[in-house]
Each structure stands twice: as structure tokens, then as C-alpha cells.
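tmp note - 3-oxoacyl-ACP reductase
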Amino acid sequence: MNITKTNRPIAIVTGGASGLGLATAKKFCNNNIKTIIIGRNETKLAEAQKVLGANCHYYPFDLNDLNNIPELINSIIAEHGKIDILINNAGINMKKPFMAVTDEEFQQIITTNVSAVFSLSREVAKVMTDQKSGAIVNISSMASQYGIPKVIAYTASKSAIEGMTKAMAVELSPLGIRVNCVAPGFIATDMSAKALNNDPERKQKVLSRTPMGTLGTPEHIADAVYYLASENASYITGTILPVDGGNAIGF
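out:
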């Protein structure tokens, strides 16, 4: 996979120290892509780097610090010279009844899951525009397609991500930057395990309407992200790709 014609690609994966982000970073590193993982917890980042090996670099950074995102990208460019791939994976969830969610809690989810994606994508797009090439892959959720109870803020944020993906693709694709989105269904991660294992009725409902009969794995998402970031998807932009084992069409 050669996103650029000179030397190997450089990718950024936010939230790359765990879950879907770690699986994606592993997929990239294993395919000789220099991969920069970003997250708040430096200890977790360092542990992930040990697992991922020499192709992995990390930057401790809180993406809620919107004002300093331009400085972060400048630092990455100063050290690595370019950015070929951006994976907007970092996100948070909150399970709480709609009428109990405070304005502050709702805004916290929106800031992390939407505003940070916007700010980071804007700054990276400036770099990619100069390069005349690049691929951005956002991570949404099938929650944006469903009416799932007790996740109002998360649902709103992921619906915004899918709309942003299309708007970004229309503006950036003429500049050589493809923008796509992967929408995971029910994936076996630490975050989903807590939610489903404490709610057997919901877990059974999930599995009963999933034609493939199992939860997905982080590797399933990593494979889809890698495809959309690669030259194999060179004529694909503005697409929302569900990776859900058929859950969306299950009965």
C-alpha cells in the first residue's frame, strides 16, 4: 500500500492504545506503516508501543484541548515530515437515561467525539492538501442508525460523525483527500463487554438479530479501516461502511 510515492506511509490513530484503535494500529504496523498513536494516558501508550514494535510512535495528548491541536500536528510534521492517513477513532460513551443526562455530560461527549474530530481533521487536511494526497477514516457506530436507549449523547455524536464524513468528502476529495467512515456494530471490546455482560437481556437481543451469530472483533474493524485507507479503495469516498455481522438487517 503506497498512499504517497515517496517512502512508506505515516498514519495517525487516535485512541490507539486500546480496543479498536489498538487493533487498527497493529494492522498498520504489521503492514510497514509508521503509525503514530495518540491518547491521554502515557502509560497505556508506552505499553502499546512495546506490543506494536518499532513502527509505532506515540504522542500523549488530550484531544479535548482543542486550542493546542494545531501545535500537536506541527510537532508531528516537524518530526515525521508528512501525514498520509488519519484514523479518528478516539471516543467516549455514557449509559444514562435521556432525562437524567445533564447539559455538561452531553457537551462532554460532543466535545470528545465530534469537536476533537473536526479540529484534528481540519489541521491534518491542511497538511494533506499541501501533499495533494491523503486518506481520512472516521469511526462512527451503528448506534447512529438505531434507536438505542440510554445513549443519547453517544448516538448524537456518531450521527454527527457520519454527516461530517460526507461533507468532508465533498470538499476534500477534489484536493486528493479521500474521507470515509467505518460504522462498527456490536464488537467485543472492554467497553462493550461491560455494557452487555451486565445486561444479559440486551446481549441476547444483540446476538439473536445478528445473522452471523456472534459479536465482531476489533480485528474486523481494523481490516475495514485498513482497506478504506489503502489504494485498494482509491475510488471510494464519502462512504459509511457498516461492519456489524448483518445486525442492521437482522430480524
